[in-house]
Design a protein that fits this description.
Nucleotidyltransferase, domain 5, 6-stranded mixed β-sheet, globular
Length: about 250
Amino acid sequence: MNILGIDTSTKKANVCIKKNNNIINKTIDNEITHSEKLLPLIDQTLKDSKLSLKEINYLACSIGPGSFTGIRIGIATIKAFAKVLDVPIFAVSSLDILAYTDIHESDDYIISIMDAKNFRIYYSVYKVNKLKYYGKLIPVLSPILDYSNDIIDDALDNINNIFLKEDLSTIPNLKIIGDCSEIYEEVFINKLDYLFKTISIHNANLSGESLINMLSNYIKLGFDDNHKKDYLTLDALYVRPSQAERAKNNEV
């Protein structure tokens, strides 16, 4: 199966292709040029993979939260490809992709965070389930706190309250991952340290490879249907109104 995945929800646009067991990932690091450079980047990635667009069997994309303009560019591109190719779309949140980055069997819970500026974060919390597939354990994300956007203090309170409701009879491990995790490392540890055996902090950005790996594993388990869209049903996940909308409504 040949898979094309893209993420344009941040300043870094990622294009990734999986052909058989080979993965090629390319990135541009300038949000302003996403509209100009995304299609040439896809074209170059296809050439490097020795594939044509018509040989793609499955599309994957992030739907946000993140850059409003970037998300729209990515979704419009994937919709156009899906309509022409008549193939399914694996649509997942940017926070899901982050949580799946460098995921390990030792991870019991993951907090995925993205910088939303002005001391705010986008965030979500997951329990990591490990399911067997031909003797191998495959991690599956089970959300326990939906996609949210708050100032850091409110976010920490919400996260703490969620964990207090969880059955933590065995002392679990926690991973915090995202593009601003190091900035907030101290406040997270101070708030949550009493609940966990270990808390590991990973400063990470979104990658097309994480998106592709997540889809590949979910296909094996038959879980990709939970995220499957087509060119008519694919839509963005903004979580918070745009800056223009907030200014119009006199919101911070």
